[in-house]
Structure prediction request, 52 residues.
Amino acid sequence: MPVESLYADPVVAELHEVRRRLLEASGGDVEEFRRRLCEREKPPGERSCQGP
Prediction:
């Protein structure tokens, strides 16, 4: 049995795929990716995102 099949996890594979699509939607720019996530997750009424 190949080692890869021992660690194949469909949930992890799906998470990687979602991350890939989100990063692709941000043009591959990690800062744009972070900004989009921050905007998406900020509480209603917040003026701006807090980030590093």
